[in-house]
Design a protein that fits this description.
Layout (H helix, E strand, L loop, with lengths): L1 H15 L13 E2 H5 L4 E5 L1 H11 L5 E4 L2 E5 L3 E2 L13 E4 L5 E5 L13 E2 L1 E2 L10 E11 L7 E2 L6 E14 L5 E6 L14
Parallel strand pairs: 1-3, 2-4, 3-6, 4-7, 5-9, 6-10, 7-10, 8-11, 10-12
Antiparallel strand pairs: 12-13
């Protein structure tokens, strides 16, 4: 009986400490601010920096670390046109804290206006159907489709064999202007795509 209790305490302890993940300088993680010049200031357009991050790091199995900040993007970021048995997998995204790390689509961003033609804002994998998009993880991050983007899909997540999406939140504005959130507090759970205007 002691073993299940001990495991439960370890699990609860990890939940309590999940909101401020900080790595030492020599931890070997890839810091998106220092390695790729992302600003995360909510003003600078970080689209190019985050695209470069995905282009160079996919398939690496490195932990891609997002310090607290609002990373403003004006277009889609992530893996698109993915192919099976390629580098288009093995992505580990770790935020410092769920509410502190926000990937936010610029308000009224071009290409996200038509609710009948959805467009993905942030993608862990989009492409050919495959059973080997493995080891994709997203932890401690929020995704905000901004205002006036009724065709935006906040997060496209796919992983099989192993992977997870936890301690993450999707924020969307409905067509009526009300802001809605969908939070996933399960550390190894999976969260559905949430689309603006629904």
């Amino acid at each position: 009986m002691k073993k299940p209790i001990l495991l439960s305490l370890v699990f609860l302890s990890s939940l309590l400490h999940a909101e401020n993940i900080i790595f030492p300088d020599d931890a070997g993680v890839v810091n998106v601010k220092t390695a790729y010049g992302a600003k995360g200031d909510g003003v600078t357009d970080d689209t190019a920096a985050l695209r470069k991050l995905f282009d160079e790091q996919r398939g690496s199995m490195n932990t891609l670390y997002f310090p607290n900040g609002t990373y403003l993007i004006s277009d889609s970021v992530g893996v698109f046109g993915g192919k099976p048995h390629s580098r288009d997998r093995f992505l580990i995204l770790q935020g410092q804290s769920e509410k502190g790390v926000v990937i936010k689509l610029k308000d009224h961003a071009a290409g996200f206006q038509d609710p009948e033609k959805s467009k993905i804002m942030f993608s862990l994998y989009q492409g050919q159907s495959t059973g080997d998009v493995m080891h994709s993880y997203v932890y401690n991050m929020s995704f905000d489709v901004g205002s006036g983007n009724p065709g935006a899909v906040g997060l496209r997540f796919m992983s099989n064999n192993t992977g997870g999406n936890g301690f993450s939140t999707l924020v969307a504005e409905s067509i009526g202007g009300e802001t809605k959130t969908l939070a996933n507090k399960i550390p190894w759970g999976f969260m559905p795509v949430y689309r603006s205007g629904r």
